[in-house]
Structure formats: structure tokens, C-alpha cells
């Protein structure tokens, strides 16, 4: 194997592929990135057996070949090189790398030990705007469950139907759902995608954020128990989560007794102030809306004291009080970009509903279960 490429391209490729390697004592090859040089340039491939990442970069090929080197070590070394051409040449004692005055040899492992990653050809394909998907990920990923007692809740539910993608996440205490456009084939398809896979996809988007050649769209392909994301020069293959996602739509309230429209930043500030006096471990605050146009937040702790803050808002319906985990509310507010937000309440025993107060308010909905008094 012998080829040359720019430091910038190599660094970008390694920043994408060097991230998923794990300290696997039984399979040290998983800590390595596979370098595959052929007529198409250089392919960087990494996997943790759950996710596989392939990134193609341009390069001048002199001799085809492949080799694996420790991914983090290689990335950190390349990152310190000057912004010039990087030459790579495979010798008997390892991969020889030279760039300007910098020269080194990195020892690796034979590529024959690297896990085989067969190409996945999805039977169903979808195309989605990257900006829409990034926004949808920001509005759902935080609500997935961390506890693996119910594996299906550790992923994001994705349902493709009628040129629309619905994404939902819940940890059984709160629920986030968002709908975005997706050009697709006919038919309805659903899948549960691991949270880590989508977080990795989000990170890949951020690596390309300043790249003028980056595509505005990402292609999603579904195959047997696998999902493939193709974006720019990157292909991400992941296993999906088996199981049936809970029918979350049944917990979304279809009516309301009180509707509140309030400035998002005012509410965030008020919650942060009141939360200083919430009970440790419970993180509880009380929220009371009255028809006179006041939203009052209150928290009290036996050892630290109490605090209440009132903010102006538009209230329609009856007076209502609900107790909530303030951290869940802040998560929801951080996921909304609009200046005004809308809150819907039935009573203190039913779910709290939060959404943007805009024309397309039904595209994102966030629900939090109340703290029982």
C-alpha cells in the first residue's frame, strides 16, 4: 500500500472513523481503523460490531493495499502534522508516514483479522434534508432511556409514511415526538434505531458543517435488522433494536382544560431560579396558571428555603396546578426554537403538554408525566 493525500482530508476522515473504537481486550482489532487503498482513493473503516463507519477520501494511489492501525493514535498524530501532503507507505515493520519534516512508523494488525463488513443494500430508501434531520435529532435524542431494562426505549422510533418521517423517544417519564418531510417509496415502514447510532450521525453532520461540498440530504436505507445512513463520503451501518415500540400515541391528551402561551426565555429563567430550591433527588417544582394571566412557579426545600416566581402569560381556561420535574421541562424548552411556547393542561394528575406556539406547532410535541402529590 502506497498513496498520498492532504492532511485536511485525512484528518477529517479520521475524526469521523476514530470515534467509535472501544477498548476491547478480547478483540484489540476493534481499536484499529482499516485503511483500504484502491483506485477510488482511500477508505477508512471502523466498527464496534454494533456500528460500522466507512469514510472515503481522495488520494493519489501508487500501490493498492490495506492495513489496520490504532485509530486514536493515528488520528492524534495526523492532527499534529502541518497542513501539507501526507505520504503513507506500508513497510514490513508497519505503516510509514511522512509529512514535511515529520516521519514516523505506526505498528498495526494484519487486515485479515478485521471483522468483515458486507455491503448492505436496503430494500427501502428514503431521502431527508440534513437540516431537518439535525433538528429532529435535537428534539428527540435527549428523551431516550438510559436504562436497558427495556431495550426498545433506548432507541428512537422512526416511522416512514406518506412522505413523512415521525420520530419519537420516551424513557416512560417524558415523550418527545417530531414530524419532518421525507421523500420515500410508497408504503409504511418503522424501525427502532439505537440512540448511540443517531448521536454518531449527528456528530458526523457537525464534522461536515463548514464543508461546502457536503450534501444537503442524507439517504436512509432499511434492510433486515439493519439501517444505513449515507451522507457525503460517509456510510454508517447500524443494527436496529428488535422489539415492539410502545403505542405512545394513547398517552397524548386529546383535550385540555387550560392553555398557556408564554415567552420561552422568560419561562426558562423562572424555572432555573425556582429550581434552586427544589428537593434534591425529586427536582420538583409547582406550576400554577390562573386566568388573570399569571404563571407562578414554586419550589420549597426543608433545609434551604423556598422561592416563587410569577411571569406574565396568556391563559385560557380554568386555573390549574401541576407538579413537575424541572429538568424534564428545561430539556423540552431547549428543544424548541420559537420565541413563544404553548402549554396544555388537564389537571395535576394528567400529562403536561409542551409545544411551539407557531403555525406548525403540531410538528413537535413534548409530554411530561406529573409528579404525584
From TrEMBL:
A GO term for molecular function: DNA binding
UniProt xrefs under InterPro entries: DNA_clamp_sf (IPR046938), DNA_polIII_beta (IPR001001), DNA_polIII_beta_C (IPR022635), DNA_polIII_beta_cen (IPR022637), DNA_polIII_beta_N (IPR022634)
Biological processes annotated in GO: DNA strand elongation involved in DNA replication
Keywords from the UniProt entry: Cytoplasm, DNA replication, DNA-binding, DNA-directed DNA polymerase, Nucleotidyltransferase, Transferase
Domain DNA polymerase III beta sliding clamp C-terminal: 249-372
Pfam families given in the database record: DNA_pol3_beta (PF00712), DNA_pol3_beta_2 (PF02767), DNA_pol3_beta_3 (PF02768)
Any one cellular-component term (Gene Ontology): cytoplasm
DNA polymerase III beta sliding clamp N-terminal domain: residues covered: 1-118
Organism domain of life: Bacteria
Domain DNA polymerase III beta sliding clamp central: 128-247
Subcellular localization, as worded in the UniProt entry: Cytoplasm
Role: Confers DNA tethering and processivity to DNA polymerases and other proteins. Acts as a clamp, forming a ring around DNA (a reaction catalyzed by the clamp-loading complex) which diffuses in an ATP-independent manner freely and bidirectionally along dsDNA. Initially characterized for its ability to contact the catalytic subunit of DNA polymerase III (Pol III), a complex, multichain enzyme responsible for most of the replicative synthesis in bacteria; Pol III exhibits 3'-5' exonuclease proofreading activity.
Family recorded in the similarity comment: Belongs to the beta sliding clamp family.
Subunit record text: Forms a ring-shaped head-to-tail homodimer around DNA.
Protein name according to UniProt: Beta sliding clamp
Amino acid at each position: 500500500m502506497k498513496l498520498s493525500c492532504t492532511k485536511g482530508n485525512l484528518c477529517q476522515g479520521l475524526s469521523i472513523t476514530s470515534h467509535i473504537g472501544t477498548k476491547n481486550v478480547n478483540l484489540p482489532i476493534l481499536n484499529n481503523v482499516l485503511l483500504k487503498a484502491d483506485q477510488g482513493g482511500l477508505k477508512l473503516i471502523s466498527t464496534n460490531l454494533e456500528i460500522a463507519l466507512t469514510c472515503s477520501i481522495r488520494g493519489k494511489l501508487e500501490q493498492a493495499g490495506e492495513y489496520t492501525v490504532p485509530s486514536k493514535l493515528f488520528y492524534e498524530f495526523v492532527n499534529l502534522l502541518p497542513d501539507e501532503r501526507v505520504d503513507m507507505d506500508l513497510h514490513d515493520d508497519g505503516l510509514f508516514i511522512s509529512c514535511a519534516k515529520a516521519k514516523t512508523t505506526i505498528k498495526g494488525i494484519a487486515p485479515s483479522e478485521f471483522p468483515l463488513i458486507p455491503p448492505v443494500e436496503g430494500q427501502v430508501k428514503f431521502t431527508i434534508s440534513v437540516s431537518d434531520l439535525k433538528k429532529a435529532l435535537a428534539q428527540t435524542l435527549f428523551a431516550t432511556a438510559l436504562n436497558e431494562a427495556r431495550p426498545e426505549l433506548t432507541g428512537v422510533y422512526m416511522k416512514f409514511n406518506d412522505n413523512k418521517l415521525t420520530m419519537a423517544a420516551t424513557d416512560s417519564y417524558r415523550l418527545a415526538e417530531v414530524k419532518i418531510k421525507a421523500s420515500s417509496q410508497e408504503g409504511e415502514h418503522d424501525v427502532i434505531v439505537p440512540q448511540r447510532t443517531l448521536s454518531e450521525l449527528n456528530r458526523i453532520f457537525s464534522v461536515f458543517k463548514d464543508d461546502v461540498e457536503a450534501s444537503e440530504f442524507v439517504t436512509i436505507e432499511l434492510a433486515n435488522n439493519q439501517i444505513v445512513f449515507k451522507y457525503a463520503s460517509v456510510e454508517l451501518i447500524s443494527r436496529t433494536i428488535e422489539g415492539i415500540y410502545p403505542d405512545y400515541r394513547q398517552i397524548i391528551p386529546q383535550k385540555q382544560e387550560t392553555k398557556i402561551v408564554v415567552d420561552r426565555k422568560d419561562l426558562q429563567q423562572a424555572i432555573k431560579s425556582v429550581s434552586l430550591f427544589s428537593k434534591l433527588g425529586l427536582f420538583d417544582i409547582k406550576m400554577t396558571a390562573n386566568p388573570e394571566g399569571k404563571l407562578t412557579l414554586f419550589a420549597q426545600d426543608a433545609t434551604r428555603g423556598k422561592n416563587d416566581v410569577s411571569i406574565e402569560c396568556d391563559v385560557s381556561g380554568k386555573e390549574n396546578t401541576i407538579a413537575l420535574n424541572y429538568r424534564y421541562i428545561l430539556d423540552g424548552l431547549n428543544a424548541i426554537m420559537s420565541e413563544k411556547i404553548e402549554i396544555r393542561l388537564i389537571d395535576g394528575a394528567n400529562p403536561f403538554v409542551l409545544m411551539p406556539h407557531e403555525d406548525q406547532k403540531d410538528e413537535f410535541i413534548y409530554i411530561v408525566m406529573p409528579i404525584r402529590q
